[in-house]
């Protein structure tokens, strides 16, 4: 598994997940939308922690700086 998620990408993913969680706890979103966004947030955090995104890999993209 080759790392393909850069630092800026990680921060953006975590911020999006944080916003979704705040919206959930403030009861701004509800129903099926909530479940969908919380699952998406979990995926974003997981890909940030692993520094690997399967979609970027499938598309041959990388946001990580070259070494």
Describe the structure.
The protein is mainly α and 67 residues long. The chain has one domain. 66% of the residues lie in helices and 0% in strands. The chain has three helices and no strands. The protein has helices spanning 7-25, 32-50, 54-59. Helix 1 (7-25) packs antiparallel against helix 2 (32-50). The longest helix has 19 residues, at 7-25. The two termini are 16 Å apart.
Q: SSE layout and pairings?
A:
Elements (H helix, E strand, L loop, with lengths): L6 H19 L6 H19 L3 H6 L8
- Taking all residues together, what is the mean pLDDT? 94
Structural class estimated from helices and strands: mainly alpha
Q: How would you sum up the global shape?
A: elongated
Largest sheet: none
Radius of gyration of CA atoms, rounded to a whole number: 13 Å
Taken in chain order, the helices and strands follow as HHH
Total count of domains: 1
Spatial separation of the terminal alpha carbons: 16 Å
Beta content: under 5%
Which percent range fits the helix content?
A: 55-70%
Number of strands: 0
Number of helices: 3
Model regions low in confidence, pLDDT < 50 over at least 5 residues = none
């Amino acid at each position: 598994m080759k790392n393909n998620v850069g630092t800026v990408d990680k921060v953006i993913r975590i911020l999006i997940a944080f916003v979704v969680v705040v919206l959930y706890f403030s009861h701004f979103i509800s129903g099926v939308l909530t479940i969908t966004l919380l699952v998406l947030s979990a995926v974003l955090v997981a890909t940030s922690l692993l520094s690997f995104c399967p979609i970027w890999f499938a598309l041959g993209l990388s946001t990580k700086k070259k070494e």
